[in-house]
Model the fold of this input.
Amino acid sequence: PTSQPVSPSRPPTLSGVRHCIAVASGKGGVGKSTVAANLAMALHHMGLRTGLLDADIYGPSVPLMFGLGTVDPQTTPLPLEKYGLKLMSMGFLVSPEQAVIWRGPKVAQAVQAFLAQIHWGELDALVVDLPPGTGDAQLTLSQSAPLTGAVIVTTPGEVSLIDARKGVKMFREVRVPILGIIENMSYYVDGAGRRTSIFGMGGGMKLALESGVPFLGELPIDPQVSECVDGGEPIVRRYPDSPVSQAYRTIAQTI
Ligand code: ADP
Done:
């Protein structure tokens, strides 16, 4: 991120946050949370003071991805800190089973509380992992969070693309600049170095072109990515030299 801070109306606790970047997807399971975590890690490695807000209330993944569990907010200051990142997730406060019964407005309220009441301090970038989809909850969040920009994650196939297109429309409606499209699970490289497209081809680029937004890059399918998710350490930190980590660094430098 290079431009100046925006939104003078942001809550006081966010006054030290220069950029608030949403990571969104039309569909679940495309790797949005994995991208948000690794992008945050890559921004941190660039020397930026970075936070990650897990707004995916129904399926919080930050606790798993960073090897953390629930804490007592009376005794543990929030946001938590790990690997140099400031982290906040509903998964630190309640078990996933408790949150699933919440309706949209309560979800938006919870995320707004994270933005307004948690002391983020001085940050160059706060990455916000939005809930998947483009429904009311996402719309409210995109309107109420002081977002500087958004990236949309899609897989290369047509089905994921249809939903990602709705994401483009949603951010345009609420006038949040779209920083670009990231295509995840673009291809698999086998032991012999052959590339295979498993989930279709070229969808991310197609969406970027038709929407007139930047294409930020493609990320290969790599079993190490999910190994790192389950192991509580993002791949960008665990295997910094892997092709996926290099791709993340390039994307982090572009946005
Ligand atoms: P979403 O947030 O879109 O629901 P997640 O980030 O939770 O998706 O990812 C879904 C699953 O896919 C996770 O198990 C994750 O480890 C795996 N995954 C994500 N990206 C990749 C990738 N590039 N290669 C291999 N596995 C991936």
The chain has one domain: 14-254.
